[in-house]
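Record copied across here:
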Amino acid sequence: MAGKNCVGICSDLRLGAQFQTVSRDFKKVFKVTDKLYVGLTGLATDILSVDQLLQFRCNMYKLRENREIKPEAFSALLSTLLYEKRFGPWFCEPVVAGLTADNKPFLSGMDLIGAPVFGSDFVVSGTCTANLHGMCESLYRPDMEPEELFEVLAQCLLAAVDRDAISGWGALVHIITPEGVITKKLRSRQD
């Protein structure tokens, strides 16, 4: 979700095999650079594999270009990475959130084969997408400050996962600002 010179990304912490909970602390949001994060939803093994591939490709980019990757370039790199496997796709739907060079929010989401969608307000992905989309539409306001953005993101996620049986077990919220990243862990229903 985008704010005023800040952007937020969050996820729940549940790892499950359909309705069976396997873990309550599975990380789905990964740091790429100080101003760029990627969230991956889907099959757990593919989430970990795609994260490792992204780390490798970003390290290669940094060595070749001698600079950190920008959100626009990272989104294109991720889209290409997913499209390479279009006939046997990675089962994950990524969300990219970061700040551009002039500290403007950048948001993009993709499907399994890397078809991107760019959002100026918010992007959602995962099992409770319909619930999240409705909550984000009702609570989002443009030009939110970091504290307000955190509160809105937390309320959207907690309200949406409460209505989805295969999501939840806590949440992790990252607010990316020009000064740094604010990370908070939320408690939610444990049933």
Observations:
- The first helix runs from residue 44 to 65.
